[in-house]
Design a protein that fits this description.
The complex is a heterodimer of chains A (about 160) and B (about 120). With about 160 residues, chain A is an alpha+beta fold. In chain A, about 35% of the residues lie in helices and about 35% in strands. Chain A contains three helices and nine strands, in the order H-E-E-E-E-E-H-H-E-E-E-E. Chain A has helices at about 5-20, 65-75, 85-110; strands spanning about 25-30, 30-35, 40, 45-50, 55-60, 115, 120-130, 135-140, 145-155. In chain A, strands 1, 2, 3, 4, 5, 6, 7, 8 and 9 form a nine-stranded antiparallel beta sheet that branches. Chain B has about 120 residues and is of the alpha+beta class. Chain B has one domain: CheC-like (Chemotaxis protein chec), CATH 3.40.1550. Chain B is built from two helices and eight strands. The radius of gyration of chain B is 14 Å and the shape is globular. The chains are: A alpha+beta (about 160), B alpha+beta (about 120). The interface of A and B includes residues 58 and 130 of A. Strand 7 of chain A pairs antiparallel with strand 6 (about 85-95) of chain B, so a sheet runs across the interface.
């Protein structure tokens, strides 16, 4: 997939996690091509958008990392994951990450991408899938656990 | 049924985002068994003993087509929306939050089980 579409989401994720939670991403993999299917670590947020092309950003955290993020964001000592407010801040962070990346892409390429509200889910043995999208997966690591990004698009930039 | 917030606990949910004159998400929720039967019906009755990659994609596509159809109907009423690519989730002990706007839930009973449609729009 066109790296011009992928890089803004990777950079935005690293920056926003650092700025909002103080957590550093210590390792990040190269984007790996996929089919839009993800086997989730445990706490996943998906936000989709539409403009001249369409896409969605999926961020998936190991539960230990999600707990740490929520602790830092909400100043909550022992956050419970199955809680609308606690999970809500993961969704909100995804919203900001996608918003920043989309603004960059909109300014650069005039894509007119508009975000729908984010979703966040926790559960066991979760698989997430889409249809008719091209996607890449990026693996990330922090001192508190691992995460995955899946960046999917229908349509692309003119070459 | 009108709810303040939306927490979905069914095993399978497919959802599509809506942007434009309306903004929100439409989610279609069912049990794994109903999802398997729906996927089977979409694939000419081919048996679906478990939700594999192809049937997961089919469920996502079902949400896409239904919501796209609704968008066309809305356009006839001068309400212009665009829909995002669909996503679907299948798992166990699901706790899914689809933003905190008011939600209308409409449940359809079918021969393969019930389908809960969560209409979650900012109005």
């Amino acid at each position: 997939m066109d790296s011009r579409l992928v890089t803004p989401y990777i950079e935005s994720t690293v920056q926003i996690i650092r700025q909002m939670t103080g957590i550093e991403v210590t390792e990040i993999s190269e984007p790996m091509p996929g089919s839009g299917e993800i086997s989730a670590y445990g706490v996943t947020s998906v936000i989709a958008f539409a403009g001249t092309i369409k896409g969605r950003l999926l961020i998936d955290f190991q539960p230990e990392l999600a707990v740490h993020i929520i602790k830092n964001l909400m100043r909550e000592e022992n956050p419970v994951l199955r809680d609308r407010l606690m999970l809500g801040c993961i969704a909100e962070m995804n919203n900001i990450i996608a918003g920043d990346a989309n603004t960059l892409l909109n300014n650069e390429y005039g894509l007119g991408l508009r975000l729908a509200p984010p979703m966040v889910v926790t559960g066991k043995n979760m698989m997430l899938a889409s249809s008719k999208v091209d996607s890449v997966t990026v693996l990330g690591r922090t001192d508190y656990g691992d995460f995955k990004l899946n960046i999917a698009f229908q349509g692309g930039l003119p070459s | 049924m009108l709810k303040e917030e939306m927490v979905i606990e069914r095993d399978v949910t497919a959802f599509v985002g809506v942007v434009g004159d309306l903004r929100g998400n439409i989610a279609y929720c069912f049990t794994a068994e109903t999802a398997r039967k729906l996927a089977s019906a979409m694939m000419m009755g081919m048996p679906v003993p478990e939700l594999d990659e192809m049937s997961r994609s089919a469920i996502a596509e079902l949400a896409n087509v239904i919501t796209g159809n609704a968008a066309s109907l809305l356009a006839e009423e001068q309400v212009k929306v665009d829909i995002t690519p669909p996503s679907m989730i299948v798992g166990k002990d699901i706790y899914l939050v689809l933003s905190s706007v008011r939600t209308l839930i409409v449940t359809f009973e079918t021969p393969v089980g019930s389908i809960e449609v969560h209409i979650c729009l900012e109005v």
